[in-house]
Write a structure and sequence with these properties.
38% of the residues lie in helices and 21% in strands. The protein is an alpha/beta fold. The protein has a single domain, classed as 3-Layer(aba) Sandwich (Rossmann fold), CATH 3.40.50.720. The protein starts with a strand and ends with a helix.
């Protein structure tokens, strides 16, 4: 297959390209750097609306991962960048793909379980409605931006990603140093559910979604056993053979990170991968202990 990928330098993109290339597929990177006559990359600039549409012709699948890093304190400018990079970029790509003479059969586009908002211990599937807050509103706009591609007959898969676990970055990467120093601990009450997924399963589930023609619409990219933050802390400390006695109170997280603390660290989202499981996907790391043992070995 010939596969177009945006966000190719990110945590997921940098890992999926070697996997796809190793399987014999041809990868084209959608990048902000002009490549001249190179056929291995295509230029785009979501802010200006510029994109090399001709280089997008003839791809079998598209994997759309690009977006402003969501970590950090969310002031007005940061939230604008987060939303614009996702909604405007996705809409530009979606409209461009819809207008091609030779369209891809499928586009997999990143989204997030933040779509569901803070829902306590409620079990959430892809049929659950949206929540409230910045991330929920962003998720709705993000997924809606793919409507032109869907209306043009392209199969759309909205990858509602949970906390992607990788020692190379993301949430786990940031937690490793304090936990290794014995400074780890639960956040807030620790009762909030974290929907997580090992990076290995993200990569495998992406490939599974590309080739599974009946899989479409929102798909939770989460392991089948979400855990509370307190349990996550306990299992991570055991995997590192370190104590985890520290407790970061809610007020400290809010003082440091503001709104992001409430929506990403303290919010409770208990999402299950109903559609992945229903499509026949088998998780390599379905429980947290086995995932962390593998990732940290």
């Amino acid at each position: 297959m010939k596969i177009l990928i945006s966000g190719s330098t990110g945590l997921i993109g940098s890992r999926i390209i070697p996997l796809l290339s190793g399987k014999g597929h041809t990868v084209t990177r959608l990048t902000r750097k002009r490549s001249g006559g190179s056929s291995s990359s295509a230029y785009w600039d979501p802010e200006s609306g510029e994109i090399e549409a001709g280089k997008l012709e003839g791809h079998d699948a598209v994997l759309h991962l690009a977006g402003e890093n969501i970590a950090g304190r969310w002031d007005r400018e940061k939230k604008r960048k987060i939303e614009d990079s996702r909604v405007r970029g996705t809409n530009l790509l979606s409209r461009t793909l819809a207008g091609l003479g030779s369209r891809p059969g499928v586009i997999l586009a990143a989204s997030g379980v933040g779509y569901y908002g803070d829902r306590g211990d409620q079990v959430l599937t892809e049929d659950s409605g949206p929540g409230s807050g910045f991330l929920a509103n962003l998720g709705m706009k993000w997924e809606e931006a793919l409507r032109p591609a869907g209306e043009a007959g392209i199969r759309v898969v909205n990858m509602r990603l949970g906390v992607v676990l990788s020692p190379e970055g993301g949430a786990l990467g940031k937690m490793l140093t304090p936990f290794r120093l014995g400074l780890g601990g639960k956040m807030g009450s620790g009762e909030q559910y974290w929907s997580w997924i090992a990076i290995d399963d993200v990569l495998s589930a992406i490939y599974h979604s590309i080739v599974s023609e009946d899989l479409r619409g929102p798909v939770n990219f989460t392991a089948p056993a979400p855990v509370t933050n307190a349990r996550f802390t306990e299992v991570l400390a055991e995997a590192l053979r370190r104590p985890a006695f520290f407790h970061v109170p809610e007020f400290a997280l809010r003082a440091l990170l503001g709104e992001m603390a409430d929506e990403m660290l303290l919010a409770s989202t208990r999402a299950l991968p109903s559609r992945l499981l229903g499509s026949g996907y088998t998780f390599q790391y379905g429980d947290l202990k086995s995932a962390l043992t593998h990732l940290l070995s």
